[in-house]
Amino acid sequence: MEETQNTVSEKSQPKSQKDRQVVLSVRDLTVGFGNNLVLDNLNLDIYRGEILGFVGASGTGKSVLMRTVLRLLPQRSGTIEILGVDYDKADEDQRIALDQRLGVLFQHGALFSALTVKENIQLPMREYLHLPQSLMDEIAYVKLEMVGLPADAADKYPSELSGGMIKRAALARALALDPDLVFLDEPTSGLDPIGAADFDALIAKLRDTLGLTVYMVTHDLDSLFSVCDRIAVLGQKRVLVEGTLEDMFAFDDPWVQSYFRGKRARSVVRHDDVHDKDQPAVSKD
Ligand SMILES: Nc1ncnc2c1ncn2[C@@H]1O[C@H](COP(=O)(O)OP(=O)(O)OP(=O)(O)O)[C@@H](O)[C@H]1O
């Protein structure tokens, strides 16, 4: 990241980070709609195996960035490299191969209501792979188990599931092709605190066991404080700051300060861990 981006300097990052593999690299990305410039020369890196929490005030462009990275929206300028592939320069075969290495959990799950859970999970397999039905069934049951859903959820329709089950079923679909990089758009929104904490724990477990890299757009302070390795804040049409929670606490910006040091944040941070009165420590419980 260039220093002009106001990112945390390399000195304050863990030393090993410099050697880590960049899985997603966004450079000088500009996206807009008519006169509405949403992202202006934005830069962002995500490293292999990390859970990156992406935050920002409502309407700053978090969804626009995610959708642009997923090629669902066009960019005006800039480059996006995922797993070493620049989609704009890639040929058809490279694009298809890249698409299979990405998993997406859209906000509210976005399951097809006319399909059962099993059929939803099998959609990516049908699109990209030519497998016998019996094998696709087997894989679907493995994915269900992976996300903590019972086998009998397979034949249910989305309308028969609770909000938490829909998120898990959508996650199972996102994992259908064993992706390297998973995009989660507000995965815990609409869940009660216990359901949200369980979902966070599931994401951390999947990252640990499958070696996933996770890009998580979230407003959930509990998620940021409990499972995210790094945080990036979107503001003023670019990444204002990226780094650890301590970097967020130290960053001099009114929105960042009120978000990470506000009343809501203070209720999540464990006060008995506070090292000094200006620098609250963070609970990882
Ligand atoms: N398809 C589109 N056409 C025109 N403008 C759009 C489109 N999608 C998003 N925008 C605009 O881009 C800006 C950023 O929207 P976006 O949905 O990315 O915000 P966000 O940070 O995800 O907000 P929230 O946290 O509320 O979900 C808004 O001004 C929005 O109106």
Describe the structure.
The protein is α/β, with parallel strands linked by helices. It has a domain at 109-178. 34% of the residues lie in helices and 22% in strands. The chain has 10 helices and 10 strands. The protein has helices spanning 62-69, 92-99, 117-128, 133-146, 163-174, 193-210, 221-226, 245-250, 254-261, 263-268; strands at residues 22-33, 36-47, 51-56, 77-82, 85-86, 102-105, 181-185, 213-217, 230-235, 238-243. A hairpin with a 2-residue loop joins β4 and β5 (85-86). The radius of gyration is 19 Å and the shape is globular. The two termini are 30 Å apart. Mean pLDDT is 85; it is low at 1-15 and 271-285. The chain binds adenosine-5'-triphosphate. Residues 33, 36, 38, 56, 58-64 line the site of adenosine-5'-triphosphate.
Mean pLDDT equals: 85
Helix content: 25-40%
Q: Which structural class should the secondary elements be placed in?
A: alpha/beta
> Percent of residues in beta strands?
15-25%
Instruction: Describe the sheet with the most strands.
Output: 6 strands, mixed
Strand order of the largest sheet: 6-7-8-3-9-10
Q: Give unreliable regions as ranges.
A: 1-15, 271-285
